[in-house]
Each structure stands twice: as C-alpha cells, then as structure tokens.
Structure prediction request, 313 residues.
Amino acid sequence: MFLTGCLGDDNGDDGADDEFPSENFNVTIPWGQGGGTDIFTRQIWQTIADQNDVGAQFENVTGAAGMRGITELYNSEGNGYNLAPMNSPSVSHFLIQEPGFTIDEFRHIGGYARTVWVLATDPDEGFEGLDDVSDAYDAGDISNIAGQQPGEPNHVLSELIRDELDVQWDSYVAYDGSGPIIEAIAGGEVPAGIVTDTAAADAQDQIDVVTALHSEGTPLFPDLSNYTDYGHEVDIDFMGGFLRSFMAPPDTPDDRVDELTVLLQEALESEEMQEWAEDTGNEVEFLGGEDYVEDVLVENQERIPEIIDIDDL
Prediction:
C-alpha cells in the first residue's frame, strides 16, 4: 500500500456540502505505483483538486488483480469524493473472482484516454523486435514473461501472444502493475514483460520497448513496430488497447456524477493538462460520460469470455 497526497481542509462527516467540491478527494488506485494508471490518475485528480482549491489523497490498494482496491471503493460512501480509476479489460476480474457485485453497479465518471500495451525487454538481452524475443523463447535462452495478476489484461495478452503470435514463453511471473514489472525487467528478474505504453515511456532509460500489441501502434513510440509488421494476420487489438476511465461508489447520486463529469472534462481540456500531455506524450481527452463508458465495459464483459476460457484463469 502506498499513501501520498496534497491535503486541504479536513473532510466532513457526511459529504452533504452546499458547494461541491469543498473537501478532499480520496482516490483509490487498485494497481501499483509507477504504472500507467497510477501516473494518469495522480496527474488528473491533482489537477482537478488544484483547480477547485481542495486536496487530493491517493492510496495504492493493490492485490487480487486490482479487486482489493475496487472492493474498497465499492464499500466507500458515495458522496462524490471517493473515486478510483477503471481500465476496460479489467472487467474480467468480475467474471473470474465473482466478488458479489458487478461493474454496472458503479457510477462511471468519464473516459479520459486510450492506452496500448507494449512488449518490453531487458536491455542486456539485446532484442530488437518481436522475432528476436520469439526466437529466444524457442531456443530456450529465456523462459519467463512478466505481467500483472491472473486475469489482468496483460495476463490475457500473454496467453494470446503465445497462442496467436507464437511467442512460446514457459512461465508467467505476476506483479502488481506496470511499474513493478518494469522494475523487475530493469533489475534482471525477468527478460520480458507486457506493460502500458504510458509506463514504458516514463522508463525508457531502464527498458527496451520492442513491439506494440495493437495494429495501430502507439503515439508514444511513433517509430515502434507493431505485431502486424511481423506478418501476423490475427487480430488481438481488442486486448492490445483499452479505455481508461474513472468510477465512483454505487450510491453516488446523479447530481454528483454530473458534477464530477464536468470537473473531469474541464480538467482534461485545461491548459495545464494539455501541456502535461504534450510534455509527456500521454494524450488525454474527454471521450464521453457515463453512458459511453458503460457501453465499452459491457462490450468487454461480453467479449472477454469469447477470447479466453475464464475457468482456466
């Protein structure tokens, strides 16, 4: 667990203030520090807090493939101040773990970015592309690959690239987020792993990024090859890219959801956020509100079982 933040006035007991926001935002991040979700979430909600003269407190609550943090949000008060990020393929955990609640019970604030998964490797290995990595696995020079907990999008992707792209890794090593995966690759614990382009761009001095796992590539690495450049005709784009959004507890009232959506859109369109996006290459834009996000999440919930046998996870 990691706790940090910029604190403003103390939170009240019931969150029923006349002016919103007037208290600290409490943002639960279900994945590890230093990953793409962590980077985006801290930047966006600190910007929203600063623009409204309140504080933002961030807590990384990892474990159970993100479900520990999601469960904490589910049990939080729906006062408009308790929030968490959500990545569209992570609906798989609701199917796998059956936590007693569903993704459509949450209130969804809005989508803010689309992210691409990339294959990253240890620079000491000297891999220059997907074929080099595949050949090393075939030769037995390397054997394992890193991703997040079973059922996470990059775990599903690791199965896909083995089955569909002939990247024949032998063992899967799980970490809590792209940040820890990058640390493991850079430290020589694992030769390769699947991480977000956001996290990879923030760690280019520690890892080699060899392939984008989406046919359109990633704007963060405009010269990077994608898996179709190696002659693969199978489509893995559904898992190779995903929607990023935010959500609130189920009992968050409509007016608070509407107000949060406006705050998110204003922040994303602000000069500060656009400058950050330009400086870092992490593109952000307001992609749509609750209805838009729900449609994407429902589609993911329906299609993931078509890709992989949930019972095997």
